[in-house]
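Lab notebook, bench 4. The sequencing result for the construct came back, and we need a structural model before the next group meeting so we can plan mutations. Quick request posted to the team channel:

Model the 3D structure of this chain.
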Amino acid sequence: QFLMANKLDTAMWISRLFTVYCSALFVLPLLGLHEAASFYQRALLANALTSALRLHQRLPRFQLSRAFLAQALLEDSCHYLLYSLIFVNSYPVTMSIFPVLLFSLLHAATYTKKVLDARSSNSLPFLRNLLEKLNANQQNILKFIACNEIFLMPATVFMLFSGQGSLLQPFIYYRFLTLRYSSRRNPYCRTLFTELRIVVEHLITKPSCPVFIRRLCLSGISFISRLAPTVA
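Done. Here's the predicted structure in token form:
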């Protein structure tokens, strides 16, 4: 009754579980490397479906207008719909599957707990214990996801020069990264950029750091700072 009363949430729960399943079989290619590539695509397509359903849930009725598009771009689900479209037809990159896997795992865990509560307050204590541990590590998982989002930017450039990526991919991914940086719901991308800057600045101020590396790092920090969008 609980599942039928919340059909859209249940559909997203099932698609997230399928995303976790496909992502796991890509990361751990138990069925062979050829099958792993197909599971990579399935995971991203399932994530795109989940993101589209969540976007439908969050937004009012569709309108072909700039205001509607601007509102859609504020939603994290829109960001990850774009993310899935960026990588679904690209060369499989293990780093790109971790955000999809971990976000799906976190959201699926939250809804699984609701399903267990609807069934019985004491049902499946072992599974409840696993869900609680996952929830306790949520902040670390979100930071890891943000780290993946950041380091995928140079990875897309590397893929371009190695012949495994398209010319448009780094530019579209840069747009995705600016949306993540400006996210209202998830500040971890901004936080990681700040933490990485502090760490690099600390390392290059040491006397043992060569001058040319210090200048190179400062130039890189200045360049990235200029590319960062303004956050209200």
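The first helix runs from residue 2 to 5.
Will bring this to the meeting.
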